[in-house]
Amino acid sequence: MPRRRLAGPAPVTRALSAGAIPGQEERIFFLANVRNPPALQEVVNVVRSIAEVQRFFPLNQAFAIAVRGTAAQAELSEWLIGRLDTAGAPLEGEYPASGFGVVRVFAVAETASAQAIQDTVNRIRTEAQAQRVFPATARHAIVFRGTAAQAGVAERLVGNLNGAAR
C-alpha cells in the first residue's frame, strides 16, 4: 500500500491565498501536544469562537490549524493556541490586548469530570451573562471572553469547581 503524504503548509497556504483579502493575515499553527482529532477539533472550536475567526480550519493529519483573519484575530488565535497546546495543564492567563474585552484561560483540575466542566461553563454563562465561554475538556480548561466584571464571576465559579474537584 503506498504511503500517503501529510498535508503540509504549502497546499494550505495556496488554498488560503487563493482568495486573499487585503488586511487579512494567514497563519498555520502546528500543534505539538494536541495529538488526536477530537482534541484538535475542540481547540479549533474554542479559538474560532473566542477570536471570532471565520476562516479557521483543522488539518487533522498534520495536527495543524490554518487561520485567515485580521492581525488582531491572528494574534489572539496564536496566544490561545499557545495556552492550550501544552504538555501538561493549560497555561492560565489573560490576553493583554484590547479590542476583545477580557480573554482568559482558566485551568481546571484534572479530577474534574467533563460534566462538571460543562456545568461550570453553563453557570458562568448564566450568572455572568457572558456568551463567549467554552470548555476545552480534553485540555482541562475553560476559555472566557467578556468584561472585567464577568471575568470576576467566571474566576469565582472556576475556583469553586477546582475546590470541589480536589
List the helices and strands and how they pair.
Layout: H1 9-17, E1 25-30, H2 37-51, E2 55-59, E3 64-69, H3 71-84, E4 93-94, E5 102-107, H4 114-127, E6 132-136, E7 141-146, H5 148-165
Antiparallel strand pairs: 1-3, 2-3, 4-5, 5-7, 6-7
Keyword list:
disordered N terminus; Ribosomal Protein S8, Chain: A, domain 1; four-stranded antiparallel β-sheet; three-stranded antiparallel β-sheet; alpha+beta; 166 residues
Helix content: 40-55%
- Assign an overall shape: globular
And the CATH topology of the largest domain?
Answer: Ribosomal Protein S8, Chain: A, domain 1
In the residues, how many domains can be counted? 2
Order of helices and strands: HEHEEHEEHEEH
CATH class of the largest domain, named: Alpha Beta
What integer value in Å does the Rg equal?
Answer: 17 Å
The biggest beta sheet reads:
4 strands, antiparallel
Q: Helical stretch count?
A: 5
Query: What is the structural class?
Result: alpha+beta
Low-confidence stretches: 1-11
**β-strand amount:** 15-25%
> Main sheet: which strands, in order across?
4-5-7-6
Total strand segments:
7
Quote the distance from N terminus to C terminus: 49 Å
The second-level CATH architecture of the largest domain is: 2-Layer Sandwich
**Kindly state the mean pLDDT as a whole number?**
87
